[in-house]
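W.,

You were right to be curious about this one. When I first looked at the sequence I had no strong expectations either way, so I just let the prediction run and decided to look at it fresh. Below is the sequence, 172 residues in total, followed by the output.
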Amino acid sequence: MSRHGGTGQEHDAVPSSFARAIESIRSAQLRAEVQIEETPAPQRLSPYAVALQATVMLDPTSDDEAASGRFVLLYDPAGQEPWDGMFRIVSFAKGTVEMDIAGDPMLTEVAWSWLVEALYDHEAHFHAESGTVTRTSSQAFGAIGDRSPQGDVEIRASWTPDSDDIGAHIEA
């Protein structure tokens, strides 16, 4: 958890709303294949922040990674107009998909709907959402030409949670 001000000075006390948000994150119930760890948070976007790095394994007992991502919770007690609130969640997720799926022009719209539906399904109420979805396909050549073609989908999104109960957002 990063506690900082615009000048880089440390605050003595964490606001209770941010402390409740952190507690709800720590009590979130994640699927077994999701591995999560706290990482350094950005320091210039808000007075308070926490960042998490996630890896989704194909199988909880293997080292085969299916997806990875980053979840950042920003908090500014004064609020920020573009956020339309005091909190803002910024997320990034990237996962491998089959080549025929990577080539589907509807993948970007479908992937965005996956995010929004996951938030609704977990009752993670939000507003002011924005983001991008990128789909790529890669073919290796030369010395690495024996590698199989690979498809990826990447979602960069941000939204404003409607309360300090952030656990459902992490679960989604």
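Here's what jumped out at me. Strands lie at 2-3, 34-39, 48-57, 65-80, 85-97, 126-138, 150-161. And, maybe more interesting for your project: Helices lie at 16-26, 99-102, 107-121, 167-171.

Coffee later to discuss?

I.
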